[in-house]
């Protein structure tokens, strides 16, 4: 009887534990990341009444006679089955699908959990807001950008950080450039100054004087004040090397008209020889002198003649258009500027200075500077300069492929200033096949600029140029040699990008200087794809489809939102649309996750049978996937737990009946004695 009673007691105790386990599971049915537990029973030690015997020649063998002493709990183990992933909409709620635990630090040690209800504290740390334990990271992502502190494994989400602007350094282009398409009529190359000359904020006309322009700042003009023209003719030859006898600078003063600039550029080469130049000369006798020009001589002038008197005499001579006096009344203290007319009109200016210190032995030799040149135009017959709505335009005479370019520079050691165009835009690209492209790029301050360019087929087979036609904004300079990428070659047999012609030595870069940082030109590289492949530019028959796909610059921005991808990378999104990787969430793997020791609150510590934590990240080394904006629910199966409760109840009732029956038998035995 004692065995029945004790076995029943162990049954009651075991099934009480079974009810406790099921009750705890049901209590945590809505606990985030909770892993249900299950209980397993085993028979307790048995009493052997008779041992087994082996068969003999006369009788067979017998089985052992044993009697159990009850039931015991052989184990209570967690079920590591995956809980359902439920979206929450909170980007910092995280769930692990598959193997792995989040790693948190309590200030002294790491602990582990499947609960991913995280938030950001006042120090920008990513924490479990219920306990304050800090989420740990792995790797060095975010350190280079200053989002994370090297040597500190805490994850920081810096909502207060600002992102500086990033200047565009690379523009990626791709698409097709037609191998056979040709326009019905080849286009003509047209250059236009990137600025508009104005008078009273209205477009200036060709008759406007430089001193009338809004771009003019009044001041003094030195004897050598000029506008220098440099550039290339349509065939690519530079002005100076093409016509060595042409002086590419034009003497100017405040009264020079824009028409004079046009005349200087347009006058046909060779229409006047060098010997047509006239020279202003002087002859002194005692204290008087005369001035001669073009075979005519002024009347006798006293050395102390006023500027007005000299002006009157000079303007009586043929070939002199006008005389402008300096500031001083006496010639010995000032100078006069002489502008010529006729074949030298608008091009040649003489500065006359007389110094009374030259009076030696009764002879006066006035110092003089004469500037004359052959009447030869800059553009000759290959292009024409016009003035249209305040812009200076250079139009090629012939249509087709052109390397024309021009630049104007104002030089004056005096105080007078005349603003010049930073560069000439290519208003129309000359060629028989042109594909225009444009893209928004950024300078070092995050300013936006629309960069326009054009691919143009060259006369060489399977070869194209890319020219920077214009760029919006406050431009300081665009250099000649770095606004055109020449000789972009394609394979003749199957059309992939071949590279740049090594003979020309061109690079795939444009150079632009902005006014806010003139000392640091911005280099913009054109990424045209991998040589010999089809991942960038190609040349096939059909239409040209090349476009500028993307660029790597951006404006300044502030931290806006955060998200976490499947690999556990925390991604910050800034107000400028740029995404930056902030950190990588650390995930811990264990050889035997069921052996982890619960320390409450959904946290675990390694035990002797769990194995040590192996640090990794999501989707690496067997770790599961992290879902941002979601939580893992409890894996408790309510239906199974109800069945377990019924089974536990039945088992408890059965063991209780065993005790009752044993008790009744003992009572009967007692009654027999009475």
**Alpha plus pi helix count:** 5
Helix content: 10-25%
Query: What is the CATH-assigned architecture of the largest domain?
Result: Sandwich
Q: What is the C-alpha radius of gyration, as a whole number of Å?
A: 47 Å
The structural domain count equals 5
CATH topology of the largest domain: Tick-borne Encephalitis virus Glycoprotein, domain 1
What does this structure look like?
It is built from five helices and 51 strands. It has 674 residues and is mainly β. Helices cover 12% and strands 35% of the residues. The chain folds into five domains: 115 residues, no CATH class; 123 residues, no CATH class; 132 residues, Tick-borne Encephalitis virus Glycoprotein, domain 1 (Sandwich); 117 residues, no CATH class; 95 residues, no CATH class. The strands form 15 sheets. Strands 7, 8, 11, 46, 47, 48 and 49 form a seven-stranded antiparallel beta sheet that branches.
């Amino acid at each position: 009887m004692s065995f029945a009673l004790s076995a029943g007691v162990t049954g009651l105790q075991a099934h009480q534990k079974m009810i406790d386990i099921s009750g705890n599971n049901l209590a945590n049915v809505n606990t985030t990341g909770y892993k249900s537990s299950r209980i397993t029973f085993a028979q307790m030690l048995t009493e052997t009444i008779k041992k087994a015997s082996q068969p003999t020649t006369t009788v067979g063998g017998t089985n052992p006679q044993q009697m159990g002493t009850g039931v015991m709990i052989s184990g209570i183990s967690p079920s590591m089955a995956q809980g359902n992933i439920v979206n929450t909409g909170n980007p910092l709620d995280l769930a692990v699908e598959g193997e792995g635990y989040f790693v948190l630090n309590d200030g002294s040690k790491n602990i582990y959990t499947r609960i991913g209800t995280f938030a950001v504290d006042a120090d920008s740390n990513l924490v479990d807001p219920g306990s304050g334990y800090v989420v740990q990271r792995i790797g060095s992502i975010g350190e280079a950008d200053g989002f994370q502190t090297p040597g500190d494994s805490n994850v920081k989400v810096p909502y207060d950080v600002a992102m500086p602007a990033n200047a565009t350094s690379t523009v990626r282009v791709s698409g097709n450039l037609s191998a056979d398409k040709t326009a019905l009529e080849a286009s003509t190359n047209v250059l236009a100054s990137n600025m508009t000359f104005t008078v009273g904020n209205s477009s200036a006309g060709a008759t406007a004087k430089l001193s009338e322009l809004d771009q003019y700042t009044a001041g003094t003009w030195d004897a050598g004040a000029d506008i220098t023209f440099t550039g290339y003719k349509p065939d690519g030859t530079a002005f100076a090397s093409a016509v060595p006898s042409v002086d590419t600078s034009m003497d100017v003063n405040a009264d020079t008209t824009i028409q004079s600039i046009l005349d200087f550029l347009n006058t046909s080469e060779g229409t006047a020889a060098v010997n047509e130049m006239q020279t202003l000369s002087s002859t002194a006798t005692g204290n008087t002198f005369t001035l001669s020009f073009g075979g005519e001589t002024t009347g006798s002038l006293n050395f102390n003649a006023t500027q007005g008197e000299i002006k009157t005499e000079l303007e009586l001579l043929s070939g002199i258009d006008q005389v402008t006096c300096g500031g001083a009344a006496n010639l010995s203290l000032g100078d006069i500027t002489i502008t010529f007319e006729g074949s030298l009109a608008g091009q040649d200016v003489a500065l006359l200075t007389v110094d009374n210190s030259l009076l030696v032995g009764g002879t006066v030799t006035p110092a003089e500077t004469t500037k004359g040149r052959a009447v030869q135009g800059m553009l000759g017959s290959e292009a024409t300069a016009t003035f249209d709505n305040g812009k200076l335009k250079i139009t090629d005479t012939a249509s087709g492929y052109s390397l024309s370019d021009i630049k104007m520079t104002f030089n004056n050691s005096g105080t007078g200033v005349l603003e010049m165009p930073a560069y000439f835009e290519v208003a129309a690209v000359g060629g028989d096949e042109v594909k225009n492209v444009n893209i928004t790029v950024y300078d070092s301050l995050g300013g936006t600029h629309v960069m326009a360019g054009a691919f143009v087929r060259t006369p060489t087979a399977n070869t194209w140029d890319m020219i920077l036609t214009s760029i919006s904004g406050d431009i300081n300079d665009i250099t000649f040699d770095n606004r055109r990428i020449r000789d972009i070659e394609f394979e003749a047999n199957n059309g992939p990008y071949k590279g740049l012609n090594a003979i020309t030595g061109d690079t795939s870069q444009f150079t632009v200087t902005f006014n806010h940082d003139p000392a640091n030109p911005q280099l913009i590289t054109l990424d045209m794809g991998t040589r010999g492949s089809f991942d960038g530019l190609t040349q096939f028959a059909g239409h040209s489809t090349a476009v500028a796909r993307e660029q790597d610059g951006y404006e300044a921005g502030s931290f806006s939102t955060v998200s976490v991808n499947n690999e556990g990378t925390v991604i910050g999104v800034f107000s400028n649309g740029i995404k930056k990787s902030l950190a990588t969430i650390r995930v811990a793997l264990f050889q035997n996750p069921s052996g982890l020791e619960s320390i409450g609150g959904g946290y675990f510590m390694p035990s002797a049978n769990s194995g040590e934590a192996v640090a990794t990240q999501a989707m690496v080394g067997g770790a599961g996937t992290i879902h941002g904006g979601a939580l893992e629910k409890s894996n408790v199966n309510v239906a199974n737990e109800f069945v377990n409760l019924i089974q536990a109840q039945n088992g408890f009732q059965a063991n209780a009946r065993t005790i009752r029956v044993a008790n009744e038998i003992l009572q009967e035995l007692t009654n027999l004695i009475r």
